[in-house]
C-alpha cells in the first residue's frame, strides 16, 4: 500500500514520522514543495494549483491514498481535490477538539499560519466544538521560515516566541495547538520557553496522530502497537533501510547525500520533540 504525503515544505515530515511509528508496513512517497514554500503567503488560487499538481504527481507515482500534511493547503484545497480525485484524501486540521477536551474551563491557544487562521474551515471547526469563546488565535508564520533553514533553538527563535506569547495570560491557557506541521520541530524550544515563563503545565497538541489514525481507517490498515522505540538515525542509509520511503522536493527525487542527510536531521529533530508529548 503506497501512501503519498505532501506539504508546502518539510513540515509534513512530522506526519510521515508519526506514520513510521504506527503504520510501518505501508510504503511512503513524501513530497515537500520547496519551490513554493511558504503557502501561508500565497493566494488561494496559487495554493490550490500547487496542491492539484502535487496530487496528480503522487497518483502517477502509484499512491493509493494521500495525506495533505499542511493545514493551509487542507483548508484551501481539500474539498476540491476530493471532488476531482477518486482515491482517499485525508486533510489536516488544527487539533482543536482534543485540546478543548483537555480542560473544561481554561483557554486554548491555536498557533497557525495566517491563511489557516483566516479560513472559514477553522471558524466552522471552532463553532462545531463550541470553542469560540475559549480559543485564542496566534499567527506564527515565521516558524515556517525558521524550520526550512533548520533553525530550531536560536536566540532569534526564542525572542520570536517570547514576543508572540507576551500579549497572552498564559496562566489561563491549558494547551497550545500546533496548527501547522512545521511547528512540531519547535516542541523542545517551546517547552523550554514555557517552563522558563513558569507554565510547565501547558500542553502542546498537534494533528499528526489523528491524521495517521484517519488514513489507517480509510485504507483499512492496522495500526502498529505502541512501543516501536525511538526513531533516531545515525546515518541516512540507516533511515532508508529502516523506513523505506521516496522523498521529493518539488518533483525532484532526493537521492544526493546532502538532501538525504538534511532529511535525516529533520527526522531526528522531530524525535526529540516526542519527549514533550
Describe the structure.
A hairpin with a 2-residue loop joins strand 9 and strand 10 (252-253). Helix 1 packs across helix 10. The chain has 277 residues and is an alpha/beta fold. The chain starts with a strand and ends with a helix. It has a 6-stranded mixed beta sheet with strand order 4-3-1-2-9-10, with helices on both faces. It has a 4-stranded parallel beta sheet with strand order 6-5-7-8. The radius of gyration is 18 Å and the shape is globular. It has helices spanning 13-22, 44-60, 71-84, 96-102, 114-118, 120-128, 142-148, 155-165, 187-196, 208-218, 236-242, 257-273; strands at residues 2-7, 27-32, 65-68, 89-91, 107-112, 135-139, 173-178, 203-206, 245-249, 252-253. The protein folds into 2 domains: 2-93 and 209-276, Rossmann fold; 96-207, Rossmann fold (3-Layer(aba) Sandwich), CATH 3.40.50.1860.
Record the SSE blueprint.
Elements: E1 2-7, H1 13-22, E2 27-32, H2 44-60, E3 65-68, H3 71-84, E4 89-91, H4 96-102, E5 107-112, H5 114-118, H6 120-128, E6 135-139, H7 142-148, H8 155-165, E7 173-178, H9 187-196, E8 203-206, H10 208-218, H11 236-242, E9 245-249, E10 252-253, H12 257-273
Parallel strand pairs: 1-2, 1-3, 2-9, 3-4, 5-6, 5-7, 7-8
Antiparallel strand pairs: 9-10
N- to C-terminal distance: 29 Å
Give the strand line-up of the largest sheet: 4-3-1-2-9-10
Q: Given the helix and strand composition, which structural class is it?
A: alpha/beta
Number of strands: 10
